[in-house]
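Lab notebook, bench 4. Still working through the backlog of constructs that have no structural model yet. Next entry is a single chain of 235 residues. Request: give me the structure tokens for it.
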Amino acid sequence: MIPPPDELDIDQRHDSAAFPQHECGLFGVFGHPNAAALTYYGLFALQHRGQESAGIVTSNGPGTTFLVHKDMGLVSQVFGQEELTKLKGTRAIGHTRYSTTGTSTIKNAQPFVVDCVRGQMAIAHNGNLINADLLRDELERRGSIFQTTADSEIILHLLAQPSENGGNVLAALRRIQGAFSLLIMSERELIAVRDPFGWRPLALGKLDGASLRPKRAPLTSFTRSSSVKFNRAKC
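Model written out:
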């Protein structure tokens, strides 16, 4: 009989049993001229949460093109002074990945960026969706084409869906179930989301008047709804 993990010597345990599985790290900045640099340092502090890949997306607001850099490896390996200098903008979201779904490849590295009916959008996601397969099947039957194997792209497709009333971000987010945290950046705003039970909580802070959103600790001041907790910062 195989003894349970808590009765094994730590050297005998599988890596996933012997060490904490933190999964992914998220960091966002809104309204700071050095958003990319701040996000880099935020991701560096969250490196323990994921070591497979790292990425940052920046923007200067409406009418400007999203700038993105992501690659496989640690934060310090993916970003140098040259890469950070190119990521100009006053708002940014970043991600360090520890894969729980999807393969560990560059195509699954986040943040994901799309240009859709809502304009440009970027998303960084931590967590798991328990209804991911159902949602993916539904979206594929309606014509959606997926480029990755990550649950995160399902959320992006839901957000990008047009609707008769012009679209409702909250309505799209209410369709996902599980334990998750999200950072969603559009051309006009940065939205931070966590699941209604706070299993993957977010923290909110300020630096020189800019909003900072690291995925580190619960934030009780987030507005609670029946399905998500979110805080929105507008231009």
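Notes after review: The chain has one domain: 22-234. The first strand starts at residue 25 and ends at 30. Flag for follow-up if needed.
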